[in-house]
TrEMBL record:
This is Class I SAM-dependent methyltransferase. GO terms for molecular function: methyltransferase activity. The keyword Methyltransferase applies. Gene3D superfamilies: Vaccinia Virus protein VP39. It comes from Thermocoleostomius sinensis A174. Keywords: Methyltransferase, Transferase. GO terms for biological process: methylation.
Length: 263
């Protein structure tokens, strides 16, 4: 899972079932083997190590690795999956408003990068009845939860992909929109991951990032689990994405939209 930790800050008719199922599933996930589907694609080039810096002394919430002056945050493990399904999330983050704001089309192919339990994947799946959602995560345990919920709720347009720290494993030029919800700041290899995402986008395809506002000291999230607009724009520009707009419609998060050039 790429998303922020529980100490930082379903479809509605599925919510009670989802919460119970996830809690039960977590208890079993430590004993069961994990499995998920993978998609073959072009390999993603690994960046020159010089773009990253390692610091011996660093924030305890970080991994001691820096990219463009920003320390990379620790990843939330699958043990925190139930927190992603908390009933208060709609009130706290307004995910339904975010989904409306990104205006997906019924035929879109959407990549949910750092999908976790599929909280956004399943909500987006109902918006693309003639398309599909690629739920990407690096933790097999998270993808097992998504596969279970797919079967329980008879959802047939969500596909799981086991990515790696350097490659989201997206088919090239196949995705209309990639969404990253409180995930990007935890990428251990942000340059490589974003390069892979850009490769997976169709020309003109969009990247949507939701990140807690790093500019606002009153957003009570640990520092490394927030990002400023300026920092996000710098890092997206480095992989060739063009900033389109920022929608400040959410209580505490930026909703930033970038586009892959059509060239």
């Amino acid at each position: 899972m790429f998303q922020h930790c529980s100490t930082c800050k379903t479809r509605k008719d599925m919510q009670p079932v989802r919460s119970i199922v996830v809690l039960v599933w977590l208890m079993g996930s430590f004993m069961l083997g994990a499995c998920s589907s993978e998609i073959t694609r072009l390999s993603v080039p690994v960046a020159d190590a010089a773009i990253y810096q390692e610091h011996r002394f660093h924030d305890p919430d970080g991994i001691g690795k820096f990219y463009m002056g920003r320390e990379i945050a620790r990843v939330m493990g699958h043990e925190g999956a139930a927190w992603l399904e908390r009933p208060s999330r709609e009130l706290e983050e307004r995910p339904s408003a975010a989904i409306v704001a990104i205006a997906v089309q019924p035929t879109d192919v959407i990549a949910d990068i750092g999908a976790g339990t599929g909280y956004f994947s399943f909500r987006l799946s109902s918006k693309v009845p003639k398309g599909r959602v690629l739920a990407v995560d690096i933790q097999p345990e998270m993808l097992d939860i998504i596969e279970f919920l797919k079967q329980e709720n008879q959802v047939n347009n969500v596909e799981t992909i086991l990515g790696t720290e350097t490659d989201p494993k997206l088919p090239p030029n196949s995705v209309d929109l990639a969404i990253l919800v409180d995930a990007y700041h935890e990428f251990a290899y942000p340059y490589e991951m974003m390069t892979g995402i850009v490769q997976g986008l169709k020309p003109g395809g969009r990247v949507v990032l939701l990140e807690y506002r790093g500019e606002n000291p009153f957003v009570l999230i640990k520092r490394l689990h927030k990002m400023t607009q300026r920092q996000v724009k710098r890092e997206m520009q480095a992989v060739g994405l063009e900033w389109q707009e920022t929608k400040e419609i959410l209580p505490e998060q930026h909703l930033m939209i970038f586009r892959k050039p059509v060239v």
